[in-house]
Amino acid sequence: MPRLLDHLPRRLFLVVMLAGSALITAASLAYFDPDTLPPFVIEKLPVRFEALWLASLKLHVAAAALAFPLCLVLMTRWLQRSAAFHRWLGRVSGVLVLFALVPSGVVLAFDAKGGRSVTAGFLLSGAIVAGSMLHGVLSARRRDFVAHRRAMQHVLAQMSVAVTSRALILGFNAAGIDPDLSYVIALWGPVLASAAVVELVSRRSPRSLPARVHPVERIRREVSSLALLLRARAVVRSVARPGR
User: Fold this and answer.
1) Could you tell me where the DSSP H helices lie in the chain?
2) In this structure, what are the phi and psi dihedrals at residue 65, rounded to the nearest 5 degrees?
3) How many angstroms separate the CA atoms of 54 and 244, rounded?
4) Residue, of 224 and 49, whose pLDDT is higher
5) 89-112: string of b/e by CB count within 10 Å (b at 16+)?
6) Fewer CB within 10 A of the end CB, N or C, for the chain?
7) Cα separation of 123 and 204, whole Å?
8) If you average pLDDT over residues 221-235, what whole number do you get?
């Protein structure tokens, strides 16, 4: 029972984020209808570089619809036990994030509602996602799985801002808070809080122990230690025997 309760917050987070991702994706399908202009697009137009903005919007929505659920599934225990499957899905999500989600998000950030402060918040979140993803990939390649996990938690935490920010905006609107102010708070709050929570959890987690040594490396070390021990015993015996 205690073990189940320990994993409950993590599992609840994954379920809520999956549900939020599905709702956002369902609400974003209108962006791909060539005969319809969604209210969000009508509100934004006209923008500078309209063709680039519209293409970036569709690319960002499509990439998020795929990358966010993939990153959530990659954090589950059962998939982490399948190293090969986990590795290939991780590569797919990495490509989506680095070459589609983040670049398109940067383009959209400069025309974000709320002005420069919101633009800065989106750019900061995108920088955390891109930097953490690169760090996570490099950590996995050198088999530093603790650093890899921590980096990917940062990626997932920043992607979850899409859900938590929308929830906060709905709550602020219901409370009658000024829309411009609520938009700034609803962005910056989750961005900073998500980064802080990952750092706090990673420091307290028992997984923050040194990374597990690869089996081949462990065998090499054990063989080296055994050889050193045998060499030391031989030296001691030679010294202990007189006349040698």
Assistant:
1) 2-28, 39-44, 50-74, 77-80, 83-96, 102-109, 116-141, 145-159, 161-175, 179-204, 215-240
2) -65, -25
3) 87
4) 49
5) bbeebbebbbebbbbbbbbbbebb
6) N
7) 29
8) 50
Of the candidates 194, 189, 152, 140, the residue with the CA atom closest to the CA atom of residue 169:
189
Contact 140, 211 (CB under 8 A): no
What does DSSP assign to residue 207? G
Cα distances (Å, whole numbers) of residue 154 to 32, 86, 111, 126, 174? 30, 18, 25, 11, 30
How many residues in total does the chain contain? 244
pLDDT tens-digit map of 145-190: 999 999 999 999 999 999 999 999 999 999 999 988 999 999 999 9
Model-level pTM greater than 0.70?
A: yes
What DSSP assignment string belongs to 26-62?
HHHGGGG-TT---HHHHHH-S-TTHHHHHHHHHHHHH
DSSP state of 100: I
The residue among 89, 63, 68, 74 whose CA lies nearest residue 16 is 68
pLDDT of amino acid 129: 98
For residues 197-218, give the mean pLDDT. Answer: 63
Q: How far apart are CA 99 and CA 64, in angstroms?
A: 12
Q: What is the mean pLDDT of the chain?
A: 84
Q: What is the pLDDT of residues 74-95, one digit of tens each?
A: 998 888 888 889 999 999 999 9
CA-based torsion, 204, 79, 97, 91: positive or negative: positive
- As a whole number, mean pLDDT of residues 121-138 equals 97
